[in-house]
Sequence to fold (132 residues):
Amino acid sequence: MNPVRVSWGMSGAVWLVMAIMCCMYWGWPAVGITVLFGLVPDLPLIGGFVEKGRLNPDRVKLYNTLHVTTIPVALLVLGIVVLFLTGGFETGFWPLALAGVAWFVHIAADRAFGFGLRDADGSMLPVGVELR
Fold:
């Protein structure tokens, strides 16, 4: 059992529950944003494989950029600030925060299932291995 993968899974589960609760509260528009931003990190995979399991090296940088937590955490923090400055849960602007949550859940699920970042040649790096 890999403790790094387990911790990613636990974190992802907590934020997934939060996303589901937000979707139940805000309705179908929230579901749409959650699905959209839950899929965004995998856009470089569309038609991007050169052979089984190996991503085209031209797409590795974009894939890795979309699979680090910097962007979703920044969206989440900015979104929470905007949400409370614009009226809170009742009337505030929530899409930024929910986009960050969905994106983070995607990354956490990838790590929990063993999908790490990509090496320069497009092959998958094990979870917990840092880029060179």
Residues 17 and 28 are 16 Å apart (CA to CA). Residues 3-26 form the longest helix (24 residues).
